[in-house]
């Protein structure tokens, strides 16, 4: 390791330059929350899936319906993947969601799809942990900065082969739901929304941290499906992630996902978002 270089004479001036928001989001189309909430008030439950502790399951949510992820027995975080159910190449894009909304998302903010479609795929309509905000450590809930616990990083850091991390759980669930082999399904597993997870970056080293989630039984995060969705949720082997996130020792609990369909006509003239309007010429004449 090389020695840290000496700071230049104007180091303090350089550090004092004010930041600029990369993607000002004032021009983003605003989610019609009043419409969604009115439709939600008429909705009835049409499906539910119980996610076992340290495992994952898939579910399908048609466009125009709602799905709710709930804590049911104890504090537990979950790793969520979403795809266009008709085209798995269109999937959740955590990096662009982070760039547009911030490191953690809550009511009125959206999960966005991957390039080249880049459109809303799900909108958060209710968040019982919305009160948490950003704590004194810089932590908040529902992050789009963590990737998912995976066996490859575990093997890199500890030389082990732990199979019930979220990456493997999501891979098994997707394979079981679609009929694909594990090898076919794995490339579709992607960076997640860390539901209920409380995370941030340390101020001194900039490292990703986690702390005990504030979630309690009865808390939930609810979404409106903007497109036809296939989802997979893993109940993380870290439980509330207060100590570690890939182990058989943490207290872990199941999670409940429920799907609700509103009464016909309550969404009025709502339409599923079209794909991004960029012409895809990339600077070459057509």
How many E-type strands? Answer: 13
β-sheet strand percentage: 25-35%
Principal-axis shape equals globular
Low-confidence stretches: none
Keywords summarizing the entry:
286 residues; globular; six-stranded antiparallel sheet; 28% strand; seven-stranded antiparallel sheet; 6 helices; 13 strands; alpha+beta
Describe the structure.
- The strands form two sheets. Strands 2, 4, 5, 8, 9, 10 and 12 form a seven-stranded antiparallel β-sheet that branches.
- Strand 4 and strand 5 (87-91) form a beta hairpin.
- The mean pLDDT is 96.
- This protein is α+β, with helices and mostly antiparallel strands and 286 residues long.
- It contains six helices and 13 strands.
- The chain has one domain (46-261).
Secondary structure topology:
Elements: H1 11-15, H2 33-41, E1 44-51, E2 56-61, E3 66-71, E4 78-84, E5 87-91, H3 94-101, E6 110-112, E7 120-127, E8 140-143, H4 151-158, H5 166-178, H6 182-185, E9 193-201, E10 208-211, E11 220-225, E12 229-235, E13 255-261
Antiparallel strand pairs: 1-13, 2-12, 3-11, 3-13, 4-5, 4-9, 4-12, 6-7, 7-11, 8-9, 9-10
